Amino acid sequence: MSCVRPQLLELKNLEGSVRNAQKFIVFPAVIATMLTIICITLIAPVSASFAEASVTEYPITNKPPKFGGPVTTQETATIKIGSGVTRLTSAGVTVTLTATIPSGVKLGAFTINIQYDGAVVNTSTANCAADPSHVMSFSFCNVLPNNVVALTGISAVGAGGEIVLATITFDGVSLGNSILAVTVSSFTDPTGTAIPFASTNGTVTVASPVIINELMINPSAVTDANGEWFELYNATGSTIDINGCVLSNGDGSDNHTIAGSLPIPPDGYLVLGRNTDVGANGGVSVAYDYV
Q1: pLDDT tens-digit map of 29-70
Q2: One domain for residues 239 and 193
Q3: pLDDT at residue 23, rounded to an integer
Q4: Domain co-membership, 96 together with 30
Q5: What is the rounded distance in angstroms from the CA atom of residue 214 to the CA atom of residue 73?
Q6: What is the DSSP string of 156-208?
Q7: Are residues 81 and 201 located together in one domain of the fold?
Q8: Are both 20 and 51 inside the same structural domain?
Q9: How far apart are CA 167 and CA 93, in angstroms?
């Protein structure tokens, strides 16, 4: 704020008579004294308030922390089931359901379902609590009619680390792939507090028991009619007789049905060709002539 000097007063703006104007001119000293008092009265408290504010201002070190603060991430448990390959005529494939518990956390109770495709695989074997090093008890461990393996268990001592919850054997029903979908209904520590988790599905592939392992087309040493052949491999642990199987060129224009017993031993091979004469077919030992 600034004080108005007496000589700058514009008397023409003052309403009244000339006599009143003369009063202002006659007593300049009185007016100056009054304005000085007003200036001192107005300015002094403002200066005092500034001084008070500077004393009470917080230093930087005492300022409150920013909103948000450090973010802490809680470790999660991992629940997963393995994958495998089986054949239609084999004994099936066994997969393992495991749970990995974070350090400092113990597993109490859990309920887990495994859904599979019954058109591709089936199972009648679910071995729960397969890991004896962790004291587990199961109130339910069974294969349900709707293609679900259901597990409900508890660890009385609070199991930790990597735990094998169950092993399940799947048999092949038809060629294809079956997803093993993991659904966790509950997963808690011994106090009943939920444990954060992430689940991973598995897959069982049912592959053909007999595989075309090698073939010769358009041989250079002999003609196609004499030298073409292919080799079959039995990927199972049992003998497979391909009697009655149909060989086809793909578009169905050239087919051949195998007549008579033609077994392939377990994990064994069998060569079929257009000519069994080793002298004419390029020196290949052919077990069956499909011409």
Answers
A1: 544 444 444 444 444 444 444 344 444 444 444 444 444 444
A2: no
A3: 46
A4: no
A5: 53
A6: EEEE-SEEEEEEEEEEE-SSEEEEEEEEEEEEB-TTSPBPPEEEE-EEEEEE-
A7: yes
A8: yes
A9: 10
Same domain, 103 and 132: yes
- Give residue 74's pLDDT: 60
21 vs 282 pLDDT, higher one = 282
Q: How confident is the model at residue 57, as a pLDDT?
A: 45
Instruction: Supply the CATH number for residue 96's domain.
Output: 2.60.40.680
- Give the C-alpha separation, 80 to 198, whole Å: 8
Q: How far apart are CA 166 and CA 129, in angstroms?
A: 6
Task: Find the domain containing 29 and state its range.
Answer: 6-62
As given in the structure block, the two tokens for residue 235 are: 């990927």
Nearest Cα residue to 143 out of 115, 163, 117, 162: 115
- In this structure, the answer to whether residues 43 and 81 fall within a common structural domain is no
**Same domain, residue pair 147 and 232:** no
This prediction has a pTM of 0.59
Altogether, the residues listed in the chain come to a count of 291
| CA separation for the pair 3, 201 (Å, rounded) | 85
Residues 26 and 100 in one domain: no
Calpha distance 163→105 (Å, rounded):
13
